[in-house]
Amino acid sequence: VFQFIVKHECHFINGTEKVRFLHRHFYNRQEFVTFDSDVGRFEGFTFLGEKWAQFWNSDPKIMENQRTAVDWLCRHNYPIVTPFSVERR
């Protein structure tokens, strides 16, 4: 059985002051390409992942979308997530 998974993660440090966004791709339980908002670009971990990262990094529309995801995805959804994550500790 082959499995392809894409994960989007928002890591909140000190509320919304420091937010890290990760966009990760897995195939057969192996991560092959990821976008890290702290790095600001895609990074490949396999031969195919390097090719995908190279293609995505060269597209300005994709890069603008990924770089702004911290605001439109993470910070936008923080009030929704807060009652289930922060206030339960």
From TrEMBL:
Superkingdom of this protein's organism: Eukaryota
Membrane topology, from the record: Single-pass type I membrane protein
Localization per record: Membrane
Record GO biological process: adaptive immune response; antigen processing and presentation of peptide or polysaccharide antigen via MHC class II
Chain ranges of the MHC class II beta chain N-terminal domain: 8-82
Signal peptide: none
GO CC annotations, alphabetized: MHC class II protein complex
Pfam families linked to this entry: MHC_II_beta (PF00969)
Primary location: membrane
Keyword vocabulary terms for this entry: Adaptive immunity, Disulfide bond, Glycoprotein, Immunity, Membrane, MHC II, Transmembrane, Transmembrane helix
Name of the protein in question: MHC class II antigen beta
Organism: Ficedula hypoleuca (European pied flycatcher)
